[in-house]
Amino acid sequence: MGGENVRVVVRARPMNSKEKERGSSTVVEIDTSSNAVSIRKPGDANEPPKTFTYDAVYDWNSTQRAVYDETAFPLVESVLEGYNGTIFAYGQTGCGKTHTMEGKDDPEELRGIIPNAFAHIFGCIDSAQAAKRFLVRCSYLEIYNEEIRDLLAVDPKAKLDLRENKDKGVYVKDLSQPIVKTVADIASAMKAGAKNRTVGATLMNQDSSRSHSIFTIYIEMSEPGPDGQEHIKAGKLNLVDLAGSERQGKTGATGERLKEATKINLSLSALGNVISALVDGKSHHVPYRDSKLTRLLQDSLGGNTKTVMVAAISPADYNYDE
């Protein structure tokens, strides 16, 4: 597998009001020319900063549009060509994952990757030749404490089963997949599902996502080939919002929240192991079976699929350990 099929990008948000009130200082430096992130240890002027290089880096001045055009646009184009692709947002609670993935509806320049992808897909469909026909469906599920729930179902708390067969590969039995014909259709499906997500207050964030969610867009295209026969291509775009990755001590998690955090961190480390094995290229075994999240995304990670991991970080010294 070529490394260019898995891209890791980092985006640092500006300091927020809480961090400023705390008197935090910035310990992160972003060098967009060399795609490097340097991190200084707070209170230790003698220790040299640690520097890491990525496929792309964005600082607190970056725009939503630039992030979409450079990281998501080529991946969405490949989905329209019939490939599978996945975009992840990763990072601790309150670091800007939701801002990067969703943003705000108004003004337009604050829209994140997801609404820009919706507009991109239906813009391409609307401008396609008359002979090309499209069918677009979507699904929205969450993985909460390693249980799968359908966020678009009448009963979003019901547990669904993960199945596997030769034709379909790994799939979720009885998962809703409504047909969507416009940006408004798909946006309202996402909004309805988001209301059913499991959130819970932690010290880090009042509405911290306690589950991973996967919003999937299935695109089937049919057009006549030179032989006069209809040729069908199918692509799939997974938009994945991962639950916050911070250590339990910072969240003040106890009881149910602590159980959630333990499951969240286990599945995040399973995902990390899969990404590492894919990027490494030498691994003969990719551990997809270690979590529901990695099993579900098995056909969209590796092979000729494209993956973008957007790591959202805070520049404040308080978050140095993260």
Structure overview:
- Helix 2 (64-80) crosses helix 4.
- Strand 2 and strand 3 form a beta hairpin.
- This protein is 28% helix and 29% strand.
- Strands 5-1-16-6-15-14-7-8-9 form a nine-stranded mixed β-sheet, sandwiched between helices. A three-stranded antiparallel β-sheet has the order 2-3-4, with no helix packed on it. A two-stranded antiparallel sheet has the order 10-11.
- The two termini are 30 Å apart.
- It has 322 residues and is of the alpha/beta class.
- It is globular, with a radius of gyration of 20 Å.
- The chain contains eight helices and 16 strands.
- It has helices at 17-21, 64-80, 97-101, 113-126, 183-195, 248-251, 255-280, 292-296, and strands at residues 6-12, 28-31, 36-39, 50-53, 56-58, 84-90, 133-144, 147-150, 159-160, 162-165, 169-172, 199-200, 208-209, 212-224, 230-241, 306-313.
Short description:
The chain has eight helices and 16 strands. With 322 residues, the protein is an alpha/beta fold.
Throw out a few tags for this protein.
322 residues; alpha/beta; nine-stranded mixed sheet; three-stranded antiparallel sheet; 16 strands; 29% strand; globular
Please write out the topology.
Elements: E1 6-12, H1 17-21, E2 28-31, E3 36-39, E4 50-53, E5 56-58, H2 64-80, E6 84-90, H3 97-101, H4 113-126, E7 133-144, E8 147-150, E9 159-160, E10 162-165, E11 169-172, H5 183-195, E12 199-200, E13 208-209, E14 212-224, E15 230-241, H6 248-251, H7 255-280, H8 292-296, E16 306-313
Parallel strand pairs: 1-5, 1-16, 6-15, 6-16
Antiparallel strand pairs: 2-3, 3-4, 7-8, 7-14, 8-9, 10-11, 12-13, 14-15
